[in-house]
Specification:
elongated, 2 domains, single chain, 5-stranded parallel beta sheet, alpha/beta, Rossmann fold, Arc Repressor Mutant, subunit A
Length: 197
């Protein structure tokens, strides 16, 4: 087996096949597994490379797999992929040292960049410092909306808590993301975790 392999763990056969094809065309060796239990059952101490794991799978989740790997194979970095991303899951993945948290459908170049960072032993990329000074400071209401977004509260519930319409929440959310230079609420949460906002 090649020295470094990309281990794909996803319960969706079409995702496994397409990832394996994409990565093999880019020159990577791959091994695919339909679930976390099969991967852990096959895991050997001399394996190196990185793991690309889906979050939602029958049985053990990708986040549970990540936690197990921290205990039993800490040298294998993990990239989390999901079609059901949320702020809470992203924060949990990053706190457990995920190299990246990528939402499906994902950009192939984004995945390859994450794999390259993982193989090079680089941590998750930092998000640039917020651009708030250049785009204007957050208003008090925007700060309230931002705090609830970071906690993973959905727009409808934010609207109820703050006594405003869901449409107004969407406007505040867009302004917050623009002012801090985040492309998504997940990036916003990462900025908050890094103490940059």
């Amino acid at each position: 087996m090649p020295k470094k392999t990309i281990y794909i763990v996803d319960d969706d056969a079409s995702v496994r096949d397409s990832l394996a094809l994409l990565l093999s065309l880019r020159g990577y060796a791959t091994l695919v597994f339909a679930n976390a239990e099969d991967f852990l059952g096959a895991l050997r101490p001399d394996w190196s490379g990185c793991v690309v794991a889906d979050i939602r799978m029958p049985g053990m989740s990708g986040l549970e797999l990540q936690a197990r790997l921290q205990q039993h194979a800490p040298a294998l970095p993990v990239i989390v992929i999901t079609a059901h991303g949320d702020v809470t899951a992203a924060r949990q993945a990053f706190l457990a040292q995920a190299v990246d948290f990528i939402e499906k459908p994902f950009d192939a170049d984004q995945l390859i960049a994450a794999i390259e960072r993982a193989l090079a032993g680089q941590p998750a990329p930092g998000i640039p410092a917020p651009a708030a000074r250049g785009r204007g400071e957050l208003t008090e209401r925007e700060r309230e909306v931002m705090q609830l977004l970071i906690q993973g509260v959905h727009n409808r519930h934010i609207a109820e808590q703050l006594g405003i319409s869901p449409r107004t929440v969407e406007v505040h959310r867009a302004r917050v993301l623009h002012k801090v230079g985040a492309g998504s609420v997940i990036e916003l949460a990462r900025l908050a975790d890094q103490g940059k906002i």
